[in-house]
Amino acid sequence: MIKKFNQEITANSLSYVLICGGIIFLVVLLGIIPLNHYNSDLSQDVKKIQTQIDEQKGLGGLYQLLKNASEKKEVHALPNPVKTRLSRQDMGKFQDTFRAEAGKSGFMIISLIPDVKTIASGSQNILYHVAIKGKFANFQKLLVKLGDLSYIDQIEEININQNSDSMEFRLKIWIALAN
């Protein structure tokens, strides 16, 4: 036979259980849940910072490459030769030199004509009318190479016209002549 235990829970014991359960509930509600939210926020912050660190590590090599490239800047100095004069017998030297420099710079010469008035007058300078075709990016190279020629007195005029296939440049170049 099975004996039945009749245990009666007294009101005092029930109140103790309810008070302890309430305290545990408050500890969970006010302590553990906010702590869990705080920890999850911290873990998201850690993930975000770790992603930023990984990104910085990936870009570190590129940064060093750009830093090294910026330190190796080439100094571009324009030529400034001592001015000289070309003898009248060597007037063809300018044409040969100009054709060579224009070819190196990727230009096609349309015309390279000396001004007859300046040749006949016996002046100390001769004017050349030059027309060339090519790319605008190469024009700077040509001008720098022309600046290296010591007998060019000045470039008086530069006209640039856009054509369908290339650009056309017209120049007036003064050459210093010796007496």
Task: Describe the protein in words.
The protein has 179 residues and is of the alpha+beta class. The chain contains 4 helices and 4 strands. It has a 4-stranded antiparallel sheet with strand order 1-2-4-3. The radius of gyration is 44 Å and the shape is rod-shaped. The model has no long low-confidence stretch (mean pLDDT 86).
Estimate the global geometry from the Cα principal axes.
Answer: rod-shaped
- Secondary-structure element series: HHEHEHEE
Structure summary, number of beta strands: 4
Question: Average pLDDT across residues?
Answer: 86
How much of the sequence is in beta strands? Answer: 15-25%
Strand order of the largest sheet: 1-2-4-3
**N-end to C-end Cα span:** 147 Å
Poorly predicted residue ranges: none
Q: Which value, in Å, is the CA radius of gyration?
A: 44 Å
Structural classification: alpha+beta
In short:
With 179 residues, the protein is of the alpha+beta class. Helices cover 51% and strands 21% of the residues.
